[in-house]
Amino acid sequence: MTGRAAASTRVHKPFLAVLGVLVLVTAWHLAGLFLFTCGFLLQRVELHDRAPPCERPPHPSWTMPTPPRGAAKGESAALDVWDELLREKGECTLPPRYARAVVWIIDALRYDFVAEALNSSTTPNVYMHNLLRKPAELHKQEHGSSILAHFVAHPPTTTLQRLKGLTTGSLPTFIEAGANFGGAGRVLEDTWIGQVRAQTGRDRMVFVGDDTWQMVFADLFDESYPFSSFNVEDLDTVDAGVEHHMRAVMDDGHYSLLIGHSLGVDHVGHRFGPAHARMPPKLEQMDGIVRDLLERLPQDTLFVLLGDHGMDANGDHGGDSELEIGSALWMYAKRPFDPVAKKGMQPLTLLPDVRALLAQPTPTPAYQPFSMLPVAEYAEGHRSLPQIDLVPTLSLLLGVPVPFNSLGTVIPEAFASAQQPLGHKDARLLRALRINARQVRTYLDAYAAQSRDLAPFAAELRDLWRQALQADATWAEMPSVDTARAAATNYMVFTRAALDRAQSVWAQFDHARIGLGAAILGLTVLVTWMLWRRTAQEASGAVARRVGRAAAYGSLAGTLVGVFIGILTHLSVAEALLAGAALGSLFAAILALQAPCQVAPGTPPRATSRVSTWLAVIFMSIHAMLFASNSFTMWEDRITLALLAVLLLGRAGLGLGAPLVRWQYRIPVISISALLLVRLAAMSRVCREEQAPYCTPTFYARRVSTEFADNPAYALSGPATNSPYTMVATYVVAFVMADVLRRLLRTSRAHLGSAATILPWIVRPAMLGAAGFWLADWVHGLERWDESTRTLFLHIKMAVARTVLGLLVVGAVYWCYAPLCLSVLREPAPETGRSRVMILGFGNALGSAFLLGGSLGFVLLFLLAQPMGQLALTACFLATVLLAELGDHERDARMLAAAKRVEAQVETPTSRPVPTLLETTCLVLVGFVAFFGTGHQATFTAIQWRVAFVGFTQVTYPWSPLFVVLNAFGPMIALPVWGAVLLALWNVAPHRVTKESLSPLPMRVPSDALHLLLGVLWYLSWLALAAAGWAYYFRRHLMLFKIWVPRFMTAALGLVVADVLALVAVVASLLLAYRIHRAFGSTFV
């Protein structure tokens, strides 16, 4: 091996060792998170049974079998016989009231968009109320043919989950929310659509609209016209296609089922928010389509208009706030729901039988207030029902069996009759409830055979069922209005209780997977801590060899243990082997790390600060313990800011005791400057629903109108549009940022060389372009433009975004091959008369170059952040650079103080101090401030989906999901990971070859980078473990899926992103090390 090759080996081997250690830690994280997530976020048990076809065709008049003696008195044996008798001779559906159906889903159609908004202090609102008028008009005019209700969606309110609920009648599961964006999620359960398809003599079934249906119901339709569902920039294409095809099918007349799913309202909400000038024309367009379709509606056809979910004040959905779950339902037909109805009847909800049923106290309220409509149609409130109630209702109205897994209850208004009320022998309402309750009972029995989820409620549900049977037997023996109402009421109480109890255990927990995953996460936290302590003294290569060898042997032994794990548990072979290998390698690593450190003879120990270490551990633990309380978790944004402020103020105070006067000024000034920057960043925020009314959002434009001043739902937020004043500020920041960074580099004279090219010619124009993209986006959304002008602005903003991305690619390539931030200064030496050569920037050659590379990544995040987030991100980026400067000053002060103590023979000599865990803690907390300041919270509704279209007009893989991930986790993770490596490189001068030293002492840059990155990963893995543990502890808490599960998912995804970005940062530092080696001959260890 030549000398050059050997020296090159001494460059890349230490960095490869760092990569090896980080890959091993990443593997442990992935194994623990995978097993825990599989155990904690399981789907409920899905039954793939189908409701069998009816053995006898339904008949308008059905004769009740005679109950056995004693059934009406509640005798157990008689009730068992009566139960079996009704099962054998009972009806499986009703005669079809309608021959076909037209179902139109308007995505995100909130209840107040359809219901009449009566005059009050806050309504009507010009942006959204009384614009889609036709349903409310017909509801007032044609009482017997219309049902209008507040349609409550079960969270999570993502489209896929809602489609499953609306077609199967089953409850959603949390883990399926991710399938809404990943291509999975085909429905395998029984659906009312499948029951219609199974009918003999049916006509064609047609779907048009959101292509999610194509994924979920691939084989159920004879004709499908899908449209892409993710292009939120396009407000009209899907709606135009739905309108065209629905008109064509209805004009043709040959169909049994026609389903349309429009997206324009949802896209307006995501793009601008509901209270925006683009919403009124969209709702008026929907109103026009409704009127047009009703003109084409045949007499024998049921028309159903509904929303799959609502939207919050920013146009988002996914959670369970009032506005997100409050969608609308309107059922209408030119033929009344009651086959024997007469004209002039009263509203269906006011029929005596309906009022008697709705007056019964059940876990599902029949009336609810709705904050957007303070004045309700009825004295009790707005008529309200769960979305899954549509499933048995539609099934029986169309004359097909209710889907097997449905937990819905028939809507009483659809089957009540003024001419044939309860007590009449052919009363459809009691017949419908009896069929409905029988189907639910069958499902519960089948479910109990597969899972013990509902075992705690089995006795209660059995008693309710037998009470219903007894009441039905009483009605059969003594027919009257009272006995019929008692039977109907008991059947409804049973179905509502079944829904409530099932909902309380809608996700099952696999304790074996949870325990193994938590154990792996916990041991990884311990091993990461041990690695962090060891890398303070031992070189990265020695650590990697020790841990890598032990982990390899341990994983081999662990796979044998995994075989026994698979035998003792129900885990799959792959899961058992994964758990065994992970646990074996972790235990082996723990044993290996007990050995003494391998340090070269004569090497002085590196100074460490135990006080700062334990202080950092205390602050990390405080952060992790927030998850023990839902209130603390909800206010994490304020608490993390307070923790960071305390640390920075403490560091400022300690700086006053530095050994040199200039440090006594500079350390406090830098600390306070960083604190001011993060305080400015924290002024940008979005508010969680639970923070009302103590949080005022500032991320989006403030609403000038006072129409919602008294409305608690809208008091929290303005429309989801950016403020033009903020955009002006982003332009100012974009222009001066390059100069600010050069000023920061000037203190180490590293502002020349590559810095003089990248900062003014790459960073500045790219940041100006990023600010310009969001300005063009805002102008594009203004209502004043015609379609051609709006298209022009769309092309402009796409071109700007792509130009910025192209500039960043050019900058990255230039950074990889450009010279360092150095310049040569020649000046005469008076004493010798010869020229003296000075290399400016030499003392910060590594840190300055790494700062330039990080600035390119910062500009990418700047492009993906919305304007207010751009300002917060910039402040946090500058704070991170200041923390690197602060840490360097603090280490210099400690080293000088230690040198003085050595001179006084108080202690033994030590080398340059190691960056402390307290410095790492501050970096991570800055990342959290950036996360919240860029408009995020640990909630689904805070995800900024619109950034998926930066530079693209439609979803483009892999860039669109990558941009969403970088927007969400880039500020929180990229800043501390990049900042950790920057701490290791900042103001570290290369060890160069000289005449006196042909083999300079190797630099500890890789080992220090590994040490600091392990500190970041230890903090984040500690948070992930705490979030997982408290989520499991509160697994039966009412707020589990609203508070703890989203926070666990945020911690888990953040940890994985940190692992990946740590690897990227190490590779970048390796490229930089090669350049340092070529310039100065430096080697690394």
TrEMBL record:
Membrane topology, from the record: Multi-pass membrane protein
Citing just one GO molecular function, the answer is: mannose-ethanolamine phosphotransferase activity
Q: Which organism is it from?
A: Malassezia nana
Record's family? Answer: Belongs to the PIGG/PIGN/PIGO family. PIGO subfamily.
Please give the pathway this protein is involved in. Answer: Glycolipid biosynthesis; glycosylphosphatidylinositol-anchor biosynthesis
* Database matches in Pfam families: Phosphodiest (PF01663)
Question: What keywords tag this UniProt record?
Answer: Endoplasmic reticulum, Glycoprotein, GPI-anchor biosynthesis, Membrane, Transferase, Transmembrane, Transmembrane helix
Q: Which GO terms describe its cellular component?
A: endoplasmic reticulum membrane
In which compartments does the protein localize?
Endoplasmic reticulum membrane
Q: Which residues cross the membrane?
A: 15-42, 514-532, 552-569, 576-595, 607-627, 639-657, 752-776, 796-817, 837-862, 868-886, 922-943, 963-988, 1009-1033, 1053-1074
Q: What is its main location?
A: endoplasmic reticulum
* A single GO BP: GPI anchor biosynthetic process
**What is the protein named?**
Mannose-ethanolamine phosphotransferase gpi13
